[in-house]
Amino acid sequence: MTLRQITLALTAVASLGMAGCNSIAGSTNMLTDEKIRSSTGGALGYAPADLTIVSRRTDGTNTYVAVKAKDKKEFNCIINGGNLLTMGMTNPASCAKKGEPIKGAGLGG
Questions:
Q1: Which backbone phi and psi does 88 adopt, to 5 degrees?
Q2: I need a surface site. Which of 1, 25, 30, 37 has the fewest CB within 10 A?
Q3: What is the rounded CA–CA span in Å between residue 77 and residue 68?
Q4: Which residues form the signal peptide (predicted)?
Q5: pTM of the complete model
Q6: Are 62 and 109 a contacting pair, CB within 8 Å?
């Protein structure tokens, strides 16, 4: 086997391994709506009860959430973690007003 063949084989194995981890992380997400409102509320300075989840989706270890506050302001947030691969632990939510880029997003964000 040449060095090139070995490199290609290792790259293929690593890619398959990462795809498997991404699938496990997405399918084992443990974030409840209550945990999401608590995390985003803390980042935005709102009480969790003052936020409504408009939409959410999980991609790998990140959960993308759109929330609306009682004062009608809307925000987009990223929460990293909350799945089997992170043992349920999360990083603080990173949020921005709807339509603005999210700065300082957590790992993978």
A1: 85, -10
A2: 1
A3: 11
A4: 1-25
A5: 0.72
A6: yes
Residue 86 tokens read as 């992170």
DSSP state of 83: S
- The tokens describing 94, both together, are 């990173």
SS (H, E, C) 16-49: HHHHHHHHHHHHCCCCCHHHHHHHHHHHHCCCHH
Question: CB–CB of 26/78 below 8 Å?
Answer: no
**Each residue of 23-68: pLDDT tens digit?**
555 577 889 999 999 999 999 999 999 999 999 999 888 999 999 9
Which tokens belong to 95?
Answer: 């949020």
User: Tokens 């290609």 belong to which residue?
Assistant: 8
